[in-house]
Every structure is written in C-alpha cells, then in structure tokens.
Specification:
The longest helix is centred in the first third of the chain and has 16 residues. By secondary structure, this protein is an alpha/beta fold. Helix content is about 35%, strand content about 20%. It binds ligand 2YC and magnesium ion. The site of magnesium ion has 8 residues, from loops.
C-alpha cells in the first residue's frame, strides 16, 4: 500500500504568517527558543542575507495556488531576501540564477528542495521536516521523560524517529503499514507500539496524512504533540481536555530547517 505524499492545498496555506506566528509562540513555550533559535542551535548556522530564488514548478499536479507566495512570506519572516521568479520551471531557474539567487527553492509533487549554489549543499523537505519537529519535541522543557510515541514512520516520520533515537529517547513507534513498522524496528531498534495496549506519553510526534490518529488513551495532561502531519492528528475536543501543547504548521518550520541546513 503506497501512501502518496499529501499535497498541500491553498486552504492549508491560508494566513501563513499568522500560522507561523502561532507556531513560533508554541515552539517558544515548549523549548524556550523560537523556530529561528532552534534551527540556529541545531544546525549551528546563521543567515547572512543570502538571496533566495523561489521557482514555481508546473509538473505533475502543477502549480499549487499560494505555494510560491507562501514560501516568499516564510523566507521574509526568517529575514531572508527572496523573490519568486516570473517564469516557472527551467525558464524560472534560469531567471533565478540570472538575478543572483544564491539559494534556489523549488518543489514538484514528490520532492521539495533548497539548493545553495554557493556551497553546493542541498536539502530535502521530508528529511528536514521530520528532523526539526523531533528536535523541537526533544527540547521540551517541562518533562524529564525520555519516552516518546512516534506515529507514522514514512518519509517524514522515519527521520523523526531516527532523530529521537540518536538523541537518547526511548521510541515507541506505530505505522498503519506493518512492513514499514517492522523495517523501522529492525533499522532503529525502536519498540513497536500496540494500540490495543496503550499507555500515556508526555511527548508525541505524528507524521501521517490522516486525521485524528492520536487517541485519548495515549494523552497525558499538558503533553506536547509535535506534528507536521496534515490534516490534524488530534481533535480539538481532546486538545482542550488535556491542555495539549500543539506544534503544527504546514510549511514554514520545515522550510526554515531546510534553509538553515544549507547555510
Ligand atoms: O506550486 C508549485 O510549484 C508546485 N509544484 C508545488 C508542489 C508541492 C508539493 N508538495 C507538497 O505539497 C508538500 C510539501 C511541500 C511538504 C508536504 N507536502
Ligand atoms: Mg495527520
């Protein structure tokens, strides 16, 4: 069963600045740092006015309304000088380089990359998104538990799980696809989580294209849920009932992680 990567919709990207500000406040409450601060601390890099060229790509399902404009808003939010090219695809790439872009941002239906033309570094959105959402959760100030539940072990979930393992956490993992779960158990040595024998967690990481994948049985009061997954993994009722600290944002946190990783 191949899960196709969930494509963003213009709806998901509505008021991206507001979504980013809310996510930034949530990250600050969880880690004491803002998104910029976590990326700088994790990658050890700081921007120095790199110019970013954003190239719309028409292949596959084509242009997603507001995608390039959202990347423009996101790169501005993190203090980069950026522009969206007038032309898409190769013409757009040529235009970006001619206009002195040092970092190229472009995405087709399967791969979203940041390519630094000066130092040759290139970043993949899935890896950078899984890693940074795990890093944010692992910096949770208000818990001393080293146990974390990871739901979804695919292209974004697996790097997240790997990051928790390498950061010394006890990872309990679940994926609807048994073969994906078994592969992760053998690769990372995580503990398979059995939904029929639930227990409570204070840190949960979710990366699935499905809604409401987090049941009440695994929630503890004030637990942190760090999730790049769209649609939302938890119902608003449960979120309120357990005063959950939710770190969820459609594009900006992953993009910041990509940019800081190629500086
Ligand atoms: O507008 C455009 O340039 C399109 N070619 C963009 C396609 C992006 C497809 N990827 C997604 O919707 C996202 C990733 C950015 C992260 C998760 N899904
Ligand atoms: Mg989800």
């Amino acid at each position: 069963m191949v899960i196709k990567m969930a494509l963003l919709t213009p709806e998901d990207l509505k008021n991206i600045n507001k979504q980013l500000q809310e996510a930034d406040s949530a990250v600050r409450r969880v880690t004491g740092l803002d998104i910029k601060g976590v990326c700088e601390a994790f990658y050890g890099t700081t921007p120095c006015c790199e110019k970013i060229g954003i190239v719309p790509i028409t292949s596959g399902n084509g242009i997603i309304g507001n995608f390039s404009a959202s990347l423009h808003a996101i790169t501005q939010y993190f203090g980069f000088d950026s522009f969206v090219t007038g032309m898409p695809d190769v013409s757009g790439y040529y235009e970006a380089v001619r206009n002195k872009a040092e970092i190229i941002l472009m995405a087709d239906d399967n791969t979203f990359v940041a390519h630094n033309l000066k130092n040759g570094k290139i970043a993949n959105n899935q890896l950078c998104t899984g890693t940074i959402y795990a890093e944010i959760a692992s910096r949770h100030l208000k818990t001393d538990s080293k146990d974390v539940l990871v739901i979804g072990l695919g292209k974004v979930g697996f790097p997240g799980a790997a990051h928790f393992v390498h950061s010394g956490f006890n990872v309990y993992g679940y994926d609807a696809d048994k073969s994906v779960l078994e592969k992760t158990v053998s690769n990372l040595g995580i503990t398979p989580f059995d939904p029929d024998k639930p227990r409570k967690f204070s840190i949960i990481f979710e990366a699935t294209p499905c809604a409401n994948t987090i049941s009440e049985a695994v929630l503890s009061e004030n637990c942190v849920i760090s999730t790049p997954g769209i649609p939302c993994a938890i119902s608003s009722e449960l979120r309120k009932k357990y005063a959950v600290e939710l770190v969820m944002e459609p594009l900006g946190i992953g993009t910041a992680s990509m940019l800081y990783s190629v500086l």
